[in-house]
TrEMBL record:
<dbReference type="InterPro" id="IPR050491">
    <property type="entry name" value="AmpC-like"/>
</dbReference>
<dbReference type="InterPro" id="IPR012338">
    <property type="entry name" value="Beta-lactam/transpept-like"/>
</dbReference>
<dbReference type="GO" id="GO:0016787">
    <property type="term" value="F:hydrolase activity"/>
</dbReference>
<feature type="domain" description="Beta-lactamase-related">
    <location>
        <begin position="52"/>
        <end position="334"/>
    </location>
</feature>
<dbReference type="Pfam" id="PF00144">
    <property type="entry name" value="Beta-lactamase"/>
</dbReference>
<protein>
    <submittedName>
        <fullName>Serine hydrolase</fullName>
    </submittedName>
</protein>
<keyword id="KW-0378">Hydrolase</keyword>
<dbReference type="InterPro" id="IPR001466">
    <property type="entry name" value="Beta-lactam-related"/>
</dbReference>
Length: 355
């Protein structure tokens, strides 16, 4: 990056951050940008937050779960083609996936879960008093059986493994987490330590396991919600706690081959559109792709953003076109659109400022 490009980029990042926190609903926020070589770093915080502040990662956690799954595949302990019947008994699988009168319950594979193409419904968004609404009013404690019950009682989206189909469902990753625990014969937190936390020497990244473990507040409009039991009960799909600084270390390691064989991405780069961001948003093997070069993108940048976002307002993306990494948090459960928009704006800035 040339000196004049760097100076312009820094100025525009400052301006973008100031605009992003103008909303009265953004009480706390962080934004953190680094390049792959490590010679460019910029960060800002708002509301007393910094890149060292603890935050709830929500679905960015799925990248940690994905890391464990990939390592188990590399070790030969797991295959994307393994049927779920290898890991779950009939109490869970019986009737879990009936679509157009045909029972697919025993045909679902590990790959269907990882690629979000099992056809399971979005277990958090179903019903008038759905889980997303209940989180606002109570510190929910959820179990795999709660997700299973919701899935069994509601319509499936398509047959498992239907080509070019994806439907985002947290049930997929809750089941992946239980598979990891079986194969590792330990808790998911210990698996995260083994495959992510210890190799990267992270000090402030963990899953909540006991009452004394700290979780950050999450805002819903102007109300600060404390939901430690909720985060504790969803470790596989959204319960990881970390900081922007450590998520940056992780996302760089995830995409540069530090945590598993980089060639594995050849198997994971098979994308299908997901429901929350049609045309622009796609899901692959455990991570999201935002196609920012397509006609559907008003930002018309080159390339793609790959990574994940979380419903509490977190995002962690790699922008290969400019070798930049974007990590941030708007910490607003009622303003989740920002977790799509801000990374796109960051990519657009990079295109304007960097040749």
């Amino acid at each position: 990056m040339k000196l004049e490009e760097k100076e312009l980029f820094l100025k525009k990042l400052d301006e973008l951050f100031l605009k992003s926190i103008k909303s009265s609903m953004i009480h706390e926020s962080t934004m953190h940008v680094e390049n792959g070589s490590g010679d460019f770093m910029w960060s800002k915080g708002h509301g007393g937050r910094s890149i060292d502040s603890i935050m709830n990662l929500a679905s960015v956690t799925k990248l940690f779960t994905t890391t464990c799954i990939i390592n188990l595949i590399q070790q030969g302990k797991l295959s994307l083609n393994n049927k779920l019947s290898r890991f779950f008994d009939s109490n869970i699988l019986e009737g879990i996936h009936i679509y157009k009168g045909k029972d697919y319950s025993y045909e679902i594979t590990v790959g269907n879960l990882l690629f979000q193409n099992s056809g399971f419904p979005d277990v958090f968004a179903l019903g008038r008093n759905n889980l997303n609404k209940r989180i606002v009013n109570e510190d929910l404690i959820l179990s795999l059986y709660d997700y299973i019950t919701i899935a069994k009682e509601n319509k499936k989206k398509f047959a498992p493994g239907t080509p070019l189909k994806a439907h985002y469902s947290d049930l997929n990753f809750e089941m992946l987490g239980k598979i990891i625990e079986q194969l590792e014969n330990t808790s998911l937190h210990e698996a995260f330590k083994k495959y992510v936390i210890k190799p990267l020497k992270l000090q402030n990244t963990y899953l909540i396991e006991k009452d004394s473990d700290f979780s950050a507040k999450m805002y819903y409009k102007h109300d600060a919600l404390y939901r430690p039991n909720f985060w504790k009960s969803i470790p596989d799909c959204g319960g990881c706690i970390s900081t922007s600084k450590e998520v940056m270390v992780f996302i760089k390691a995830f995409f540069n081959g530090q945590l598993f064989d980089e060639s594995i991405f050849g198997q994971l780069r098979k994308f299908a559109m997901i429901q929350y961001c049609p045309l622009l948003g796609q899901y692959g093997g455990g991570f999201v792709r935002l196609n920012i070069s397509g006609i559907a993108s008003m930002y018309r940048c080159k390339g793609e953003l790959i990574g994940h976002m979380g419903g509490s307002g977190t995002y962690a993306y790699y922008y290969p076109e400019k070798d930049l990494y974007f990590v941030g948090d708007v910490n607003q459960f009622a303003k989740q659109g920002d977790i799509f928009i801000l990374p796109l704006k960051l990519a657009k800035l990079a295109n304007k400022c960097i040749g």
